[in-house]
Amino acid sequence: MWYYSKKMSGVLLTGDGKLRKQASKDNIEVRGIIYLFDVLLNQNLISFQDAVEKIKQLILLNNRLPKKEIDKRVELWNDEKHVG
Questions:
Q1: At what angle do helices 33-42 and 67-78 cross, to 10 degrees?
Q2: What is the pTM of this model?
Q3: Which of 30, 39, 59, 74 has its CA 20 to 30 A from that of 48?
Q4: Which residues pair with 13 in a beta bridge?
Q5: CB-based burial of residue 8 (10 Å sphere; 0-12 exposed, 13-18 middle, 19+ buried)?
Q6: Count of alpha carbons within 13 angstroms of residue 53, beta-carbon side
Q7: What CA–CA distance (Å, rounded) separates 78 from 68?
Q8: Per-residue pLDDT for 21 more than 80?
Q9: Which of 45-67 are b and which e, b meaning 16 or more Cβ less than 10 Å from the residue's Cβ?
Q10: Does the pLDDT at position 82 exceed 90?
């Protein structure tokens, strides 16, 4: 995936720490699962309520996700506000 992101000047979607670090060194834009939630909300593909519910489930399954970022989004999404 790194190769194609670099070749096509695309965005790399990953949660792998080593891959993220290498891609950043190579000036490849890197995004993760929290970004996907932002996109789904911005395009009205899921509700704020669903986003909060699902991201809370996700953090229970993956404790390596950035808790501060998730807490920030849960707070905004509970008020039905978008990030940024």
A1: 20
A2: 0.84
A3: 30
A4: 31
A5: exposed
A6: 5
A7: 15
A8: yes
A9: eeebeebbeebeeebeeeeeeee
A10: yes
Do 55 and 70 form a contact (C-beta atoms < 8 A)?
Answer: yes
The Cα–Cα gap between 6 and 9 comes to 5
pLDDT at 74: 97
Does residue 12 contact residue 31 with C-beta atoms inside 8 Å?
Answer: yes
- Look at residues 80, 79, 47, 83 and name the one whose alpha carbon lies nearest to residue 70: 83
Give the contacts of 46 (CB within 8 A, at least 6 positions apart). Answer: 37, 40, 54
First-to-final CA distance of the chain:
28
Q: How confident is residue 15, by pLDDT bands cut at 50, 70 and 90?
A: confident
Tokens standing for residue 23: 């891609």
